[in-house]
Amino acid sequence: MARTSGRSVVDAFRIVEGRTSVLPMLAPEPVPEVAALATRIETPCGQGRMVWRSFGDGPPLVLLHGGTGSWRHWALNVIPLARRFRVLAADLPGLGESALPPEGATPRTVGEIVAAGIETILGDARYDLMGFSFGALISSQVAVVHGARVRSWTVVGPASLGLARHGTVLEKVRSKSGEERRAANRANLAKFMFADAAAIDERAVAIQDWNTVHARFKSKGFAGTSDVRDAIASVPARVSAIWGARDVTASPTLEARLDVLRTVRPEVGIIVIPDAGHWVSYEAAAAFNAAAIELIGGN
């Protein structure tokens, strides 16, 4: 993509957004060995396309990543899970390589775009659904839209439970370069995503950087809603949850969040993974993959 002096990354996206459904790569692919195994699929999204990655062949499992993220939040999960499922890992609207949703988007309208994309790919087939953080919120709206088509619904480190959320001040990344930029990405992972800073490897830093520079849709303002709690209380799907025991977003107490789930859905399946933070699917990937298969049921 041609870059004009003085234009920001966001300005560059605005220029491209009106011309093409394929957004430019603003950083090298951080997990090329995983990306190479995927089939890329596009479905409608606003004035462009929503991008999906498909792995494996089996009962379908839809994965929705977290805020300021992309399908790469699941980089250590898609291949192990694809041994049992057809994994469909989305780039949510306005994130990763997907086009922005229409102006004034809400969790419900974004969820409707995602639900329509699932219908385009899977037809009327039933499927399992999993959402991480902001993806848990969007998955709640997909579960409401699709009802009994969703066989199981698993939330990972969700907000939107009607409880106050711990605020974290993150480092600015886009204005930095070189080692200063890597250090800012690493600091943000340590503050928000990982329990153990020693577990942050260069691949995690590269994923964080790629996700950050490609993010255009701001999801932070939706965390204080009760949409996930309300959907858990009403949808027919079997509901489960996975948390890292040291997830900073559950501060001051994870138990309060578990109590919300058990109150609205007494039979909810819950697995808390020790010594892991918010990005539990990466920091404790082997334990997470085993937990996901156990809760979904392996089908």
Notes on the structure:
By secondary structure, the chain is an alpha/beta fold. The chain has a single domain (about 25-295), classed as 3-Layer(aba) Sandwich (Rossmann fold). Helix content is about 35%, strand content about 15%. The protein has an 8-stranded mixed sheet, with helices on both faces. Helix 5 runs parallel beside helix 8. The protein is globular and about 50 Å long.
List keywords for this structure.
alpha/beta; 299 residues; 8 strands; 37% helix; eight-stranded mixed β-sheet; 11 helices; disordered N terminus; Rossmann fold
Main beta sheet strand tally, sense and closure: 8 strands, mixed
Helix content: 25-40%
CATH topology annotation: Rossmann fold
Largest sheet, spatial ordering of strands = 1-2-4-3-5-6-7-8
What's the helix-strand series? HHEEEHEHEHEHHHEHEHH
**How many structural domains does the protein architecture include?**
1
Instruction: Give the class from helix and strand content and strand pairing.
Output: alpha/beta
Average pLDDT rating: 90
Strand content: 15-25%
The total strand number stands at: 8
Rg computed from alpha carbons, rounded to a whole number of angstroms: 18 Å
| Overall 3D shape | globular
Distance between the termini: 44 Å
